[in-house]
Design goal:
The complex is a heterodimer of chains A (145) and B (92).
Chain A (H helix, E strand, L loop, with lengths): L5 E5 H14 L5 E7 L4 E10 L11 E3 L1 H11 L5 E10 L7 H6 L5 E8 L2 E10 L6 E9 L1
Parallel strand pairs in A: 1-3, 1-8, 5-6
Antiparallel strand pairs in A: 2-3, 2-5, 6-7, 7-8
Chain B lengths: L2 E4 L2 H4 L7 E4 L4 H11 L4 H4 L10 E5 L2 E2 L15 E6 L1 E3 L2
Parallel strand pairs in B: 1-5
Antiparallel strand pairs in B: 1-2, 3-4, 3-5
The chains are: A alpha/beta (145), B alpha+beta (92).
Chain lengths: 145, 92
Amino acid sequence: MASHLTLSIPDALERTMLEHCVAAYPREACGALLGALEAGARRVEEVIALENAAPPDRMDRFEVRPADMLRLMRCERGTERRLIGFYHSHPDHPAHPSATDLAAAWPEYSYAIVSVRNGVVAEWTSWRLASEGARYDSEGIQILG
Amino acid sequence: MGVTVLLPTALQRFAENKEQLDASGESVGEVLASVIEQAPQLAKHLFDAKGQIRSFVNVYLGDDDTRYLQGESTAVKDGDTLTIVPSIAGGE
């Protein structure tokens, strides 16, 4: 674990993210995290729930529609707020990146993963692609009251 | 005037932390080649081993995904804006 990596999130925004993941169960939920982007510590300032565009029969996948991603990128232009990462849920699976997650990961972004078991949040973790791109580094999570 | 290429946060550090690059070319492929000339480290993130645009990379001309136009052959003109839009996906 690269312990210098930290994702801070206000408790109200954490609740927004987790409630979305529970509401989507047993499908995967996904959304965007906007905030301040720094090398190590980063702070979530906005959580945006997104529609999971994966085919309906793929309960174990999520996809963000490229047009939605384009809109998010336009939101951050000319502002201090940056698209710092994404969250998605793993229904009835651990909050650990899968091979699918790793294959699709981009540098710089934080990837929060929420494990939802039987409709209840079990845990959540956050990850960032390691510089060589072959694995994830775990991010510390700080909940801000 | 050239073509403006907007980069996602994920790729800016491979382009000296720039949010956008000024490029030239008459097609999407030529503009991307111009981008790689300026920022060679972007190449592995934009292209696969065969030199094709990676499937995880979407290139928008204005509001249009060039995959549904003429792909890399899509014509561009001075003053256009291309946006590199990363595909975000995954799952258990």
